[in-house]
Amino acid sequence: MTAHSAPFVPVAEARSPLPPLEIFLANPRGFCAGVVRAIEIVERALEIHGAPVYVRHEIVHNTHVVEQLREKGAVFVSEVDEIPEGAVTIFSAHGVSRTVERAADERHLDVIDATCPLVHKVHVQGRRHAENGYDVILIGHAGHAEVEGTRGQIDGRLHVIAKPEEVAGLVVQDEARIAYITQTTLGLQDTREVIAALKARFPAILGPETRNICYATQNRQGAVMEMAGRAELILVIGSPSSSNSSRLREIGAQSGVPSRLVEGPEVIDMRWFDGVSRLGLSAGASAPEELIQATIAHLRQFRAVTLTELKGVEEDVVFRLPLRLTDPPA
């Protein structure tokens, strides 16, 4: 090294900017009419009666929604015996059993029923079949709030199954008098397989094909299937306790696309996006749109983002609130 030369200092290799990320937004996504109705029931009850208003179980299966309502004065309990006698009480969108209804009556609770009208329709169908002497097969996941509410609404012979292989083990009174109903938030393909197995064993079985699966569930599953053809990774915004959100993730994975269920942007690991330039983004029927927008804003901190809103089924279903909340007594 000469007297006039400077020591060599290696220059750090310039890092290449991350490639842009194209986000495909599933349509429809997020809140369905039953969820909108249930949340509005809690909010209106708080406006009319003041806090606290008690809610048996989560009003819908979404942590963010529950926390927002809790901040407004809703108190969530596991069972009605935790509620003070005579208090204003709301049953969740998933429905409840007759045992719960009787327990609420015994405590003289002022009950507002937020059961989704489509879940109530399943209750009516199941009761009608049972009253006519049929064994009723409920296709659904044992332990889920909706399934437990439905089975508790039907007197008579009721069997809960979730998989085609469970059909062989069913013991019924009369194979000519069998009917089935379904949980409203199941995966369409899985349900079709169970129905096919039931029909193969019990040709005379009565049932509604997949019409018991609610319109919103079907539309959101179809949107994810459409999106899967474009995406390299799918994120579904929703809580793990949400059956319909879990089904959306499963459908993405079944379509051959890595798929993850996340409650919000705070749990996203950017390593998931290594090598990914096309993201599919959806949300379960109980997840608010604000979480989708927060997720997009989070991703914009790391990548240049372009948004493509996919075309889908236009939903215009609205469920009316209980009359006491729309026209309360003076």
Quick one: biggest sheet?
5 strands, parallel
Tell me which oligomeric state these chains represent: single chain
Query: What is the element string, with H for helices and E for strands?
Result: EHEHEEHEHEHEEHHEHEEHEH
Class derived from helix and strand content: alpha/beta
**What does the overall shape look like?**
flat
Summarize the model shown.
The chain is built from 10 helices and 12 strands. With 330 residues, it is an alpha/beta fold. Residues 1-16 have low confidence and may be disordered.
Could you characterize what this model shows?
The chain has 330 residues and is an alpha/beta fold. It has 10 helices and 12 strands. The strands form 3 sheets. It has a 5-stranded parallel β-sheet, sandwiched between helices. Helix 3 links the parallel strand 4 (88-91) and strand 5. Helix 7 (215-228) runs parallel beside helix 8 (243-254). The longest helix is centred in the N-terminal third of the chain and has 17 residues, at 33-49. It is flat and about 65 Å long.
Protein topology:
Elements: E1 21-25, H1 33-49, E2 53-56, H2 63-72, E3 74-77, E4 88-91, H3 98-106, E5 110-113, H4 117-131, E6 135-139, H5 145-151, E7 158-161, E8 178-182, H6 188-201, H7 215-228, E9 233-237, H8 243-254, E10 259-262, E11 278-283, H9 289-300, E12 305-309, H10 323-326
Parallel strand pairs: 1-11, 1-12, 2-3, 2-4, 4-5, 6-7, 6-8, 9-10, 9-11
Q: What would the keywords be for this entry?
A:
330 residues; alpha/beta; five-stranded parallel sheet; four-stranded parallel sheet; 17% strand; disordered N terminus
